[in-house]
Specification:
about 325 residues; mainly alpha; 2 domains; two-stranded antiparallel sheet; globular
Length: about 325
């Protein structure tokens, strides 16, 4: 048997046995296609998306300027090694707490802007002719979004501080929490649970998307720094130009995550509440339609095994 035949058989085996195979396999979701669709939508509506993040990043710039006054001064003592080591530990702890708080503040403010973009994109996706737009269309979500942003921000900050990799894992698992809260109108904990559910077994798709967006932001920042060095000498001009360049790229983040959400939703639909009659006459109780995450089969509410593929059903968390 040739190497090519063995390779084809191996690919066929993984495609057949993969839990992502639900008729139309989740493997077919292309990150490049999602990015391409996101760029097309963004360029078609740039006059709508760009001002939001220009305002958000301008506010964050002033937030950083105000926070600089509270940065612990770096003045190491000119004493023995033990005193220097103790001072470095204390300074590192203080600086870590400071930057973690600053990160949380910027994260919450940025997510508030993302909510507006997600709402607008979801209206377009769902074919609403009268697209609601503006701050007041999502004002009722701001409290929940702030709490959700704080929770995800704290989890990511702790993950990055402790071992770095857990921070990446938290960012991937809960990357769809904001679109889910806006579109499915779930509470904070249910949005986190639903995000974990959607990214389960396809975390690497979300990871590749986040890495792609992160690299684009890094390239935008480097481009802004290059032009600043070449053309500008005033510090305030550099900051303004940096904000403009980053604001041109950043809307891709919520747009692409909303695109990913709708792609994943095709294969992992939202459970729909339904009523089942109880033993007592005239009464009923509410349950949910369950789906097999391996083949997409609709399941009885008390199913333990899927009647279509025979796999054991994971209990709901």
């Amino acid at each position: 048997m040739s190497v090519l035949v063995k390779y084809n058989n191996l690919i066929a085996y993984f495609e057949r046995e993969s839990p992502l195979n639900s008729g139309r396999s989740l493997r077919r979701i292309s990150i490049l296609k999602i990015l391409d669709e996101s760029f097309s939508l963004y360029l078609a509506r740039i006059e709508t998306f760009f001002p939001i993040f220009l305002l958000i990043n301008t506010f964050n710039m002033f937030l950083v300027y105000m926070a600089r006054a509270f940065i612990p001064p770096f003045n190491p003592p000119n004493k023995g090694a033990n005193e220097l080591f103790t001072w470095l530990i204390n300074y590192g702890f203080s600086a870590t707490i400071f930057f973690a708080i600053l990160f949380l503040a910027i994260w919450v403010v940025t997510n508030l802007g993302s909510v507006l973009v997600v709402k607008y994109v979801s209206n377009l996706f769902e074919g609403r002719t009268n697209v609601k737009w503006g701050f007041f269309s999502v004002m009722h979500l701001l409290g929940r979004v702030s709490v959700l942003s704080l929770i995800t921000g704290i989890l990511m900050a702790l993950g990055f501080i402790l071992l770095f990799f857990p921070g990446i894992l938290m960012a991937v698992i809960f990357s769809l929490a904001i679109p889910i809260m806006v579109i499915e109108r779930l509470n904070v904990l249910d949005s986190l649970r639903r995000s974990k559910e959607l990214t389960d077994n396809v975390w690497w798709k979300a990871f590749l998307l986040l890495i792609s967006i992160f690299l684009m932001l890094i390239m935008a920042i480097l481009f802004a720094e290059f032009l600043n060095i070449s053309f500008y000498t005033q510090r305030w001009l550099k900051e303004i130009f940096r904000v403009i360049v980053v604001s041109l790229v950043e809307p891709i983040y919520p747009i692409s995550l909303t695109q990913l959400y709708y792609h994943l939703k095709k294969y992992k639909p939202t459970p729909v509440p339904i009523e089942y009659p109880s033993a007592e006459a005239g009464s009923s109780y509410v349950s949910e339609i369950k789906f097999c995450y391996y083949c997409g089969q609709v399941l009885p509410y008390d199913a333990i095994y899927c009647p279509n593929c025979g796999r054991k059903i994971k209990p709901s968390l």
